[in-house]
């Protein structure tokens, strides 16, 4: 069994690219935002890439209330090509 990835972690590629302390957070919810922000304070994060579900308006609003700004969206599409008739 594979261990779950952490909610938030340092982002060395972004740090190298932008020259500032950076982190990534996946699966952010309003309830877990405190955990993300505490990590950012502890690690002195200046740039955070935070992802939440598109249908989780509460998470997006909590991020905005904490000073975040929506800068980008990412949509994943899934389709089983094997199930399609030829």
Set out the fold topology.
Elements: E1 8-10, H1 12-18, E2 22-25, H2 33-43, E3 47-50, H3 57-65
Parallel strand pairs: 2-3
Antiparallel strand pairs: 1-2
Characterization of the model:
- The protein is globular and about 55 Å long.
- Helices cover 31% and strands 13% of the residues.
- The chain is of the alpha+beta class.
- Helix 2 (33-43) links the parallel strand 2 (22-25) and strand 3.
- A 3-stranded mixed β-sheet has the order 1-2-3.
- The chain has 3 helices and 3 strands.
Q: What's the short story on this structure?
A:
With 86 residues, the chain is of the alpha+beta class. It contains 3 helices and 3 strands.
The poorly predicted ranges are none
Distinct helical segment count: 3
Average pLDDT across residues?
Answer: 90
Rg from alpha-carbon coordinates: 16 Å
User: H/E series, N to C?
Assistant: EHEHEH
Number of DSSP-assigned strands: 3
Bulk shape: globular
**SS strand fraction:** 5-15%
Oligomer: single chain
How far is the first residue's CA from the last residue's CA?
37 Å
> Looking across the biggest beta sheet, what order are the strands in?
1-2-3
Would you tell me the structural class of the helices and strands? Answer: alpha+beta
Largest sheet: 3 strands, mixed
Residue share in helix:
25-40%
